[in-house]
Fold these 2 entries.
Entry 1:
Amino acid sequence: MLKDITIGQFFPGDSIIHRLDARMKLIVTFAAIIEIFVCRNFYALALTVVYAVAAVLLSKIKLKVIFRGLRSILFIILFTSILQIFYNSKGDTLFEWWKIKITTGGLIAAAFMVIRIVTLILISSLLTYTTSPTTLTDAIERVLSPLKKLHVPVGTLAMMMTIALRFIPTLVDEVGKIMNAQKARGADLDTGSVIQRAKALIPIFVPLFVNSFRRAYELAFAMECRCYSDAEHRTRLKVMKLHARDFGYLGVDLLLLGGIIALNILFGKQI
Amino acid sequence: MTDTIWLRFDHVHYSYPAEEGQKAVPAVTDVSFDVHEGEFVCVLGHNGSGKSTIAKLSNAILIPDQGVVTAMEIDTSQESRELEIRQNVGVVMQNPDNQIVATIVEEDVAFGPENLALPQKEIRRRVDDALKAVDLYDMRFHEPHKLSGGQKQRVAIAGILAMEPHVIVLDEPTSMLDPKGRTEVLDYIHKLNRERGIAVVLITHYMDEAVQADTVYVMEKGRIVLRGTPEAVFAREDVLDSTGLELPECAALASALRQAGVPMPKSVLSPEALAEALAQVLPREVTP
Amino acid sequence: MSVILETKGIVYRYGVGTPFELKALDDVHFAAEKGAMTAIIGHTGSGKSTLIQHFNALLQPEKGQVLLSGEDVNRDKETKRRARFRVGMCFQYPEYQLFESTVYRDICFGPKNMGLSEDEIRVRVEKAAGFTGLTKSMLEKSPFDLSGGERRRAAIAGVMAMAPEVLVMDEPAAGLDPKGRRDIFRLIENYRTSTGSTIIIVSHSMEDVAAFANRVCVMRGGRIVMEGTVDEVFSRYDELRQMRLTVPKITDVFHTLRARGFAVDTNVYTVEQARDAVLRALGKAGDAAC
């Protein structure tokens, strides 16, 4: 169900990670993702793991939540690691049957890939776990604001994102209500052929679209009533200020990058 | 009440643009009324009587076909002063879900002041002030979709309040709320009128919401058919009957008793007045 | 009178296993008498909506049973499906579920899902349109071209066309103006008396409950805390007040008068009852004076 999606979910808190400036978090997370792909050996990768685990611990997000987020991408992890195992034929052969050949090289590559993906997910989901969607949207708006000079409507785009975020719960709720109402009129949503099922969605989606247009119309009216006219020249309630801790965070990330480069050079390419 | 007029409808006509091949149906016909400084006005009418159009005409969302609407002495047809008009005349709508923009209460309240491009400090002050006025300051970090209907509507009111308008027009603000939410929202509307001197135009189909108004206008088929104090308007049952409105129970009982020959004063609108009126006629219980 | 729909000790929780776990129903024993109008009242979040969704097996209880004519609706797929059609459900703001190109076709949706013949469907739709006062020309219109009150009635017709033995309505008059409100309650009452169907209504309006319901059941914190005739429940005035449930304003006035020492009945909930009570009190006083 839609409600079970945890990636992108915000968990309010007061940890140091929560308090970091969202713009800095956004930039550093982006940098860290690139850094993960720069790693060429297990030593460098281990360093990113240490970094990710430390960040998770500092964020005080419950490990249960973290694991639940990972579980949802279990399939991707399994799929990529199986690909690695079968398509990498370096190293000693451990097992061979018909066209399937498992080698030490394949296992190592798979392990490397799994660690890489898990670290990647940890770091990126930590950003959304510790930053409210609104703050994140704000941060994106501000990080991208230099693009305004190129006439990119950054403010309008951010406004659209905010409204989308605002209406997701409302629409999820609405889908549930419409589904219940049609089920109560005997709609069968769970059985039948693909075509039958697709047809069964019409009574759900037609009202959903009609209602969404009505909502959009009313929202536009409400926004006009509140003097909305130009998204690019608004001032904001929240002012984002960089603190010493934000530069500290950037420093940690630079250290990580330095470490990775050093370990890459020191131990060479393993994968 | 002084003589300053904050919002004026002067012989206003309006028809929505007709669809192809159809004739435009007038939504508002020859409507005139004034909202004075600090006045509490109630516009009554059933669904489709044209009363929602009044809200949209009052802040330049719609411009009259004929006649003039003046908000704080600005003619609403002056497009260049649109923002000034909307800042002065705030409109709250029926469905709280469709007028909340942001995902955090305080950020939603800030939406108006942000659009007015006020300095950050001023936005902060107004947001805090507006939230305190509707007693939602403690919930400023909450997500609006998790609030009750009454609370959402209070957020919407705070959002308008933060623009510091002179007049607030509310279009059926309680019709989607449960009784608790309804009382809650009405209490705050009255409080804002009383304590901050904000003029209120309450558009509704509940006659009991009109009991405490200074002036009541009853609309039917786009026209104002009755106007006056609540007492005067509620006494005109002959006209009210045809408008599909319903007298508040207390007034209805007083009227039924009057018809049955029991002496009842003319202006029984509130439960208190009814109790008082009945106390005059009922016999005292004989204590055993 | 016999019981047609009954819940036996049902328990339901939302978000089991999450930090947001919420016990919505806690050992609920509810019974609806055949042919009667039962009202369920209570604050938002008291469990009313969760309860009614058990009546047609949209939700399955964790514990306990839902019995329709003595049969467990959750026994198997077939009983669940039967319950969908035997118990018609009209949620709040049902007009937002309309989807077909014409009102007529939308009303057909339920009967079609029941697998009825074309002829039977037409009869059903016409009957439902009759109950809800939809004219022939309205039936040919797109539901989106109707007025708010008409759309509401079209949606109700869509449920009535399934000819359910039990019709459950969640706030059927929400958001309508007084005339629309009266129309809806009258058509429900008319439907009940002419078809003998059982009606279960969820309402915030004590005035409407007092005027139309036979039995009332009060929910609080996922439990049924009061149950009985309108008189039995509304006479527990102090308890209702404590729960911050509004009783009709007129009832309030009569309680105030009684407290001030006036000889007047307090079991008055509608304007007519109140008028009669006052006239009675005056009549008595007249007799005593003679």
Note: The two ends of chain C are 45 Å apart (CA to CA).
Entry 2:
Amino acid sequence: MKRQRSWLLLAAYLVFTLAPIYWMVHMSLRSNLAITGTFAWLPESLSFANYATIFTDPAWYDGYLNSIIYVVLNTILSVAVALPAAYAFSRYSFLGDKHLFFWLLTNRMTPPAVFLLPFFQLYTAIGLMDTHLAVALAHMVFNVPLAVWILEGFMSAVPREIDETAYIDGYGFPRFFLRLFLPLIKAGIGVTAFFCFMFSWVELLLARTLTSVDAKPIAATMTRTVSAAGMDWGTLAAAGVLTIVPGALVIYFVRHYIAKGFAMGRV
Amino acid sequence: MSSAKPVNQRAWWFVLPVLISVAFSALVPLMTIVNYSVQDILGPDQAVFVGMEWYQEILRDPDLHGALYRQLVFTAAVLALEIPLGIALALTIPARGWRASLVLVLLAMPLLIPWNVVGTIWQIFARGDIGLLGYVLTRLGVDYNYSQHPMDAWVTVLVMDVWHWTPLVALLSYAALRAIPEPFYQAARIDGASRWAVFRHIELPKMRGVLTIALLLRLMDSFMIYTEPFVLTGGGPGTATTFLSQYLTQKAVGQFDLGPAAAFSLVYFLIILLLCFVLYNFMKDSR
């Protein structure tokens, strides 16, 4: 009886989530004239013209590739750097640890616009402008603190006795960390990777400023749809639909880590 | 904190890579802003030191007071809606199986759409003549028009934010719930604990770390919300949806007042910092 009511909440929320997404798909299948002209519950005809525009124009599909490259690079770097730090914060106390932990998060409290000019000068000086690495590094400013915080939360939920038992059993630190500890916080790593992916994927301002041609992201290409001829709603909606795909794949692949985690592991 | 953590200064080595990667790119911008905020920039090579003048000018600006007030109300509403809703959703998502996978993928979709596209989609979606939401509301007899009624615009921005960001809270909470070891539930079952007691005494405490980050993230990100309302309403009608970052952009880009804009950036940062600090300590001490 109670179960049914909770299903109702979930179902209602999913309808709410899917309605605007349905509308985006709906728009992506119609022409601009039809979108701004009349209301229709279903698209009058299935026209893939907007998608064809994207798949035949190198500016569009290169944008996708560029975004995927720097986002993946950023996710790997952020998680790799954050893992040992999160372990240190969750297990040890050291000089300035609490201040440092909170300071990390303050890097997310600045509007990204503030970073623009200094970043531009910095990356020009070290010759990284218009590379995927530049965007990946720039996005670490907001993803690394996030990764450390999320991972620390998951690591602190793992009882410290597990570490101690492992040392008594003769595990060295690297072997303990990689073989025993990381599998225990799989859920956290999965979620962290997804969020790093997501925040880097939707960030536009920095990615656009640090690139011009070779590493131009998809979100920057999208802003081109506003032109003198008015808004190209259909193409923008089609591009929007396509931007969901990579992230949806990522969450599909990490879902086991999110869902299984500690409960299914060895305790 | 159950027991004191062992002191180990060598833990610094673990933190060092993070420090290098973040400090490198965070300190330079901060210095630039501090530098601008105390000078009057007259030209590329001409600047006059003006001390606290910009700060005084900014803090007296009635436009800022209005924007700050709207921002505080908006952020409070965002937190009050998204956090409980996210937790409730996390509790209802199936623990495993294909249903869980499906729900997770569907839930995450709004998060993956670039922010400018989110605004654009809602711009059409909420229109009374050609959008699903606006059309349905109008048909139901609701006098709804987000581009003319300030209240409608405000609510639309709020609903859009709930749509966009509740999945973040839900996914984080869901992962935290899945990380609770089965023996905890078994013990509760033996004790005959009610569903509420399990939530209050097992699930909520175990989620605390993850919930803290969810709360802080939503607090600071909603405080800096810019792209979505900018695309959807342009801050209007009037100033109904002009929040702080829009005010900042008007200053920096619209009027090109670099000095006051920099001073305001710092004040802005300090407000967010203060709110996060209070909330963080509240979450830390609450158990």
Note: Confidence is low (pLDDT under 50) at residues 261-267 of chain A.
